[in-house]
Amino acid sequence: MGKHEVCAPKYIAKKIKAKGLQKLRLYCQMSEKQCHDENGFRCHMTSESHQRQLLLFADNADRYINNFSKEFERDYLEVLKHEFGTKRVHANRVYQHYISDRHHLHMTSTKWDTLTDFVKWLGREGKCKVDEGEEGWFVQHVDRDPETTVMQEAVSRKEKIDRDDQEMMMAFTEKQISKNDTPIFMEFVRPREQHKIVVNLKVERKRDEDMKNNILVASNALKNGSSAENKKDSRESGRRRGEKRKLSALGEIIKDEENERERINRKDYWLVEGIVVKVMAKCLGDKYHRKKGVVATVCMLDSGHKLKLDQEHLEMVIPAIGRPVRVVNGAYRVCSAMLRELDQKKFCVTIEISSGPLKGRIVDKVEYADICKLYNVDM
C-alpha cells in the first residue's frame, strides 16, 4: 500500500496519531516502544529483543526500578519548578503536563503504584509541600537553590531597613505633633465683683498736631508771600514717596530671585563632600549606628573607616550656634554659612552667608533638612 500524499487528510491524521499519546498498557518501558494496538503489543512481547530486555531486567530488577524512580522524580519536579514555580497546584495537573511529552517515563515502571503514593513520598522526604484538599492532593515546590536563598535574604534585609526607616519617620512625626501644643481657651471669670478693670489708653494726638503745624505753615506762607517753600516741601514729599516705591520694588525683585533660585536648586538629593552626617542604618551594627562621619564616601570620625552608603541611611547634623554649616538644598544650595540662631519649636534656623557674591546676607526660617554641619579639619 502506497503512502498518502502530503497534506492529505489521512496523512495529517497519521501524523497527529504518531505525535500524540497512546494507551499506557500498550507501552514497554524496557524497550521504550509504544504499540498502536493489542496485536502489535502481543507481537512485541514475543519478539527476541523484548526477551533480551526481560533477561537483563531479571538479573537486577531493583537497580532498574530505582533508576526509573529517580528519573521520574527528577522530571516531575522539573516540570513543577519551571511550569508553576512556588505556586500551590493540584498534583494531577502537574502530572498531565509531565505526560504531555511523548517520551516520558511511565509511572508503572517506578516503585510507586499511584500518583497519590508518589505525592505522599515527596512530602515525607521534604522535597515538596503537600496537603490534601477536597479536590485531591496539592503540591508546592520548595526552592532550595543557593542563588535564590541569597536573593531572598537580600530582599528580607532591604525590607527590614525600610521598616526601620518608616518607624524612625513615624517617631519623628509623632514627636513633632506632640511639641505643637494646641491652645486651650477658657472663659474669663472675674474673681470679685468689686474689683474693676481699668484700661489706660494713651491716645497720641499726632494727627491734631500735624494739622496745627500745617495751619501754621500755611499762615506763614501767606504772610511771607513765599510760595517757593511750599514747592520745595511738595518736592521733598514726592521724593520720599518715590524712594518708598523704589524700595518696595527692589524687595519684590529680590523675592522673585529667591523663589527662582529655590525652584532651580531644590533637589531630591542633598549629599555633598565635606559635611558631617550621622549614620542611621541599624543593619551596620552598633559599631556605626548613630555615629558621625564626614562625606568622602562616608569616613567615620572616630575609627577612620570608609563606608559607602545611600543618603536614606544618613541624617543631617546641626552644629552649635556660631559654627560653620553648608547649605545642602534650597535657594542657597552649596553656599557656606554661619549658624546664627536656632528655633527648636519651628525646626528652623537663621544663617549668615559667608561665601560667594551673597556674602553677609542673613537668611531666616531655613529648615533643618536644608543645612548640615561643615567638617573642619581642626575639630
Automatic annotation (TrEMBL):
GO molecular function terms listed in the Swiss-Prot or TrEMBL record: double-stranded DNA binding; zinc ion binding
Biased composition (Basic and acidic residues): 229-240
Signal peptide segment: none
Gene Ontology terms: biological process: DNA damage response; DNA replication
Pfam families in the record: C2H2-zf_KIN17, KN17_SH3, SH3_KIN17_C, WH_KIN17
InterPro entries attached to this UniProt entry: C2H2-Znf_KIN17 (IPR056767), DNA/RNA-bd_Kin17_WH-like_dom (IPR019447), KIN17-like (IPR037321), KIN17_WH-like_sf (IPR038254), KN17_SH3 (IPR041330), KOW_KIN17 (IPR041995), Rib_uL2_dom2 (IPR014722)
Annotated spans, Disordered: 219-244
One cellular-component annotation, GO: nucleus
Top-level division of the source organism's lineage: Eukaryota
Ranges for domain DNA/RNA-binding protein Kin17 WH-like: 52-178
UniProt entry keywords in alphabetical sequence: Metal-binding, Zinc, Zinc-finger
CDD domains noted in UniProt: KOW_KIN17
PANTHER family: DNA_RNA-BINDING PROTEIN KIN17, KIN17 KIN, ANTIGENIC DETERMINANT OF RECA PROTEIN HOMOLOG
Record-stated family: Belongs to the KIN17 family.
Name of the protein: DNA/RNA-binding protein KIN17
